[in-house]
Amino acid sequence: MSKPSDKELTRNQQAIMEELERLREEVAQVRQILNHVDTINLEQPLTGAHISTCLEQAAETSRILSNIAGKYIAVGGEYNGRPFKVHSDSNLELIVRDMNRPSLGKFGEHGVQIVGPYPQTDLTLDDKIADAVASAKQEHATQTELRERRAQQDQKIDNAQNTLRRAGFTVTPPERS
User: Fold this and answer.
1) Can you give the residue ranges of every domain in the chain?
2) I need a labelling partner for 57 at 20 to 30 A (CA). Which of 11, 26, 95, 152 fits?
3) CB–CB of 86/55 below 8 Å?
4) Model confidence over 39-90: pLDDT tens digits?
5) Greater confidence, 145 or 27?
6) What are 158-174's pLDDT values in tens digits?
7) How far apart are CA 146 and CA 135, in angstroms?
8) Which residues contact 120 (CB under 8 A, 6 or more apart)?
9) What's the rounded Cα separation, in Å, for the pair 91 and 119?
10) To 10 degrees, what angle do helices 51-69 and 6-34 make?
11) Which pTM value belongs to this model?
12) Where does the pLDDT of residue 30 fall: very low under 50, low under 70, confident under 90, or very high at 90 and above?
């Protein structure tokens, strides 16, 4: 293989310099745009991804955008219907903790709330009470829904048995819990 000529090297260097200049201009344009942005919202987290993975990706995106912009850019999103917001230096363990707190979900006093970017480190007694109340409301709603579903199933079974009896069949009712 032959060595490239000085002319070829000069052309390659010139092409590299032109590409570098084009990239610098694009970065400058992105910086200008990011001057007007405080938060970027993710459309969809990875399907089947664990909450920690989603938050880590959001924090990394925040780090990259913040470095380009020269200021904090928060990245927000939703996981299982729970909204979150992170910065590159957010404590992701605390955000995961709060994403699982019932009082910050639909059964909380204020409904679904955005978790992050800087949750408090320690939960107060009021926080713990709010979680217990929301958890009780959630359990009550779950039990009510379960009773309603069982009643609907029982009604369907009764209707099916009555239809079979009218058709002349002997029906042994199933055991019900």
Assistant:
1) 37-166
2) 26
3) yes
4) 888 876 556 778 898 899 999 999 999 998 889 999 999 888 888 999 999 9
5) 145
6) 898 889 889 988 878 77
7) 16
8) 94, 127
9) 8
10) 110
11) 0.65
12) confident
Question: How many residues are listed for the chain in this entry?
Answer: 177
Phi, psi of 2, deg, nearest 5: -90, 155
Q: How far is CA 129 from CA 37, 101, 122, 138, 164, in A?
A: 37, 11, 14, 14, 52
What sign does the CA torsion over 116, 120, 123, 124 have? negative
Q: Which amino acid is at 126?
A: D
Two tokens, residue 56: 């880590």
Tokens of 43: 């459309």
In the DSSP assignment, the letter for residue 150 is H
| Residue keyed to tokens 């000069």 | 10
DSSP bridge pairs for 115 = 84
Tokens of 60: 């990394």
Residue with tokens 């409904």: 111
Joined tokens for residue 162: 């009555």
Distance between CA 114 and CA 134 in Å, rounded? 16
